[in-house]
Specification:
The protein is built from eleven helices and 13 strands. By secondary structure, the chain is of the alpha/beta class. Strands 7-6-8-9-10-12-13 form a seven-stranded mixed β-sheet, sandwiched between helices. The chain is elongated and about 65 Å long. It starts with a helix and ends in a 6-residue tail after the last helix. Bound molecules: alpha-L-arabinofuranose.
Length: 329
């Protein structure tokens, strides 16, 4: 009798411990794998969530398709996950499915590319790049750099290679690029086209520009992958990237640092993919019952170039070679 009693007590205790330590399930709807930035973003969040005691990751790669993301979000609702991490491939068209997430009562964390309906839905936290400021910094860097080498009053031809059309990262950076161009009347816009945030499309767009635009002095690429693809095209056309054409990228991935140190690229404006440092403490706090105000947090970001010291108002550029060893992505 005593043995039976002990067995029942042990089973009850086991059941209790089992239910008390049930996993916190965090679902992540990722856009795809278009760039080094995206890979770093996926790896950072994946590692942090999978290595966190008591947390489980449900990951979905939408392969750049909005319909895949909508399907993934509905699957997460069906699975009744505990949290949803979301970044949208484009900025529009999310109202309905994100309202469904709200109605299911699943806390939503927005990261990276925020949807345009952010004000109309509920979210518990939002961490995203300040894309308009990044775009402004790209143009301001080119304008201030040209002044620093005594060419501030010479007309120069500028091309803007845009990211995926309709992505918040594209619309924001284009807005910042175009607004800043007004501050630098000697920078003349002679080309503006999407390279879809990929290296291959960046190369193809640059190849066609080099054939159709007689003189290109400055390339503003809305991410580093497209800048790196363009560098291949510039070299293949017999020109010297970084000298014949000044190249300003965005993201600050390791390959861009290498290109700057090698003299092939001039500048990269930082857009950090490392969101785990924000997401993990936020979910830990939410688990403890802490509530957050509905607000958007932009990480602090830098600008890196060949020599450093270019003053962009909100930030001064840093010499890439001086910090390359400390970079995490
Ligand atoms: O949303 C962030 C942007 O998406 C990065 O700049 C780009 O490289 C990525 O594909």
């Amino acid at each position: 009798m005593k043995k039976v009693f002990l067995l029942i007590t042990a089973l009850v205790l086991l059941a209790f411990v089992g239910s008390a330590s049930a996993d916190v399930v965090i679902a992540f709807s990722q856009i795809g794998q278009e760039s080094d930035w995206r890979t770093a973003n996926t790896d950072d969040l994946r590692k942090a969530i999978e290595n966190h005691p008591g947390w489980k990751l449900v990951y979905d790669d939408a392969q750049q398709k909005q319909e895949n993301q909508i399907k993934a979000l509905r699957n997460f609702i069906t699975q009744d996950v505990n949290y949803i991490l979301f970044t949208g491939v484009v900025s529009t068209g999310w109202d309905e499915v994100l309202k469904e997430v709200n109605e299911a009562g699943i806390p939503l964390l927005l990261i990276d590319r925020l949807p345009d309906c952010a004000d109309r839905i509920d979210y518990v936290a939002a961490f995203g790049g300040d894309f308009v400021e990044e775009g402004r910094r790209q143009i301001a860097w080119a304008g201030e750099y040209l002044k620093s080498i005594g060419k501030g009053d010479k007309d120069v031809n500028v091309v803007i290679m845009e990211g995926t059309t309709g992505a918040t990262a594209q619309t924001g950076r284009t807005e910042g690029n175009l607004k800043a161009l007004k501050e630098y009347p000697h920078l003349k816009l002679v080309g503006q086209q999407s390279g879809n945030f990929t290296r291959a499309e960046g190369q193809a767009v640059m190849e066609s520009w080099l054939k159709s635009i007689p003189k290109i002095d400055v390339l503003i690429a809305q991410n580093d992958d497209m800048a790196l693809g363009a560098i291949d095209a510039i070299k293949a056309a017999g020109k010297v990237p970084g000298k014949d054409i000044i190249i300003v990228g965005c993201d600050s991935v390791k390959a861009a640092f290498d290109a700057i140190v090698a003299g092939d690229m001039n500048c990269t404006v930082e857009c950090t993919p490392l969101y785990a440092a924000f997401v993990v403490p936020t979910i830990e706090a939410l688990e403890r019952g802490v509530k957050f105000d509905k607000s958007v947090i932009h990480p602090e970001e830098g600008v890196f170039d060949m020599n450093g010291g270019i003053d962009l108002g909100t930030v001064k550029s840093v010499k890439a070679a001086d910090v390359i060893a400390t970079r995490q992505y």
